[in-house]
Design brief:
Number of helices: 11
Shape: globular
Helix content: 40-55%
Largest sheet: 7 strands, mixed
Number of strands: 11
Amino acid sequence: MQIELIETYLDLMETRSFNRTAERLNLTQSTISHRIQALETALTRRLFTRNKGGTVPTSAGLRFLDHARALQRQWHEAARAVESAGAYEHAMRIGVQQDVAERLAGPWLAAIRADLPATSIYMEVDYSGQMNRDLASGDLDLAILYTPHHLPDLHYERIGEMTYVLVSTLSALAVDLRVETYIYANYSPAFDRAQRLALPQFVGAPLASGQNIAIAGLLRSLGGAAFVSKATADDLVESGAAQIVADVAPIAQTVYAATGIRTRHAPQHRRIISAMADLLNG
């Protein structure tokens, strides 16, 4: 069975629209229709019905969803294994949250290479949403992220935390901070909720970002106040560019490791996760 048929079916299950799936896959609508028909012929079951309300999966279409996800994931795993067979014993594609990568990617990869010299590593730096999708599709084997989505066949475990500290170029007291110079950090939904509780007056700030390195650059260029990682806060204080706002408590962001259910106990996965946990908690 062609993997293109499976991936077209999975996209159509998301969009519930032949037109939208055609746009997302950069194909014609007739190509999408032909792929779905070919898949239905192979399975001898109708997977979708079309009516005025849109495209609706049949009962067979709904039952096929988990199997299709597993087929897609296994195909990507098999393709990577064949591609890398001539060079290394194993190949791993790992994703890591941008702020975690900024601080720990170097020592993490050094530890992995020392511990698993026969494994080739591809590292993707991204946000949690995309990494969850890539894990579900099989494009990643493992991810270090902030926000689990608890998708089918994925396993999440807490391995540590990143600490964010409020700093300011203007004052060390929260009462002196102004909304017009506040840079709103949106590192994750959990972080956003904690920040809203701590500083509700700054929810309408004119600048916002979800990346620590970008916020640090804005602070250096424009001044103001924002939550940054503890390591960045220490650098800003040491350089004299900012000061810690001492009367606002730091916010701890939980870090999770995510893998497939089938591979959560695999030795190389455990060693890669342990290397990151050691760095986060060291």
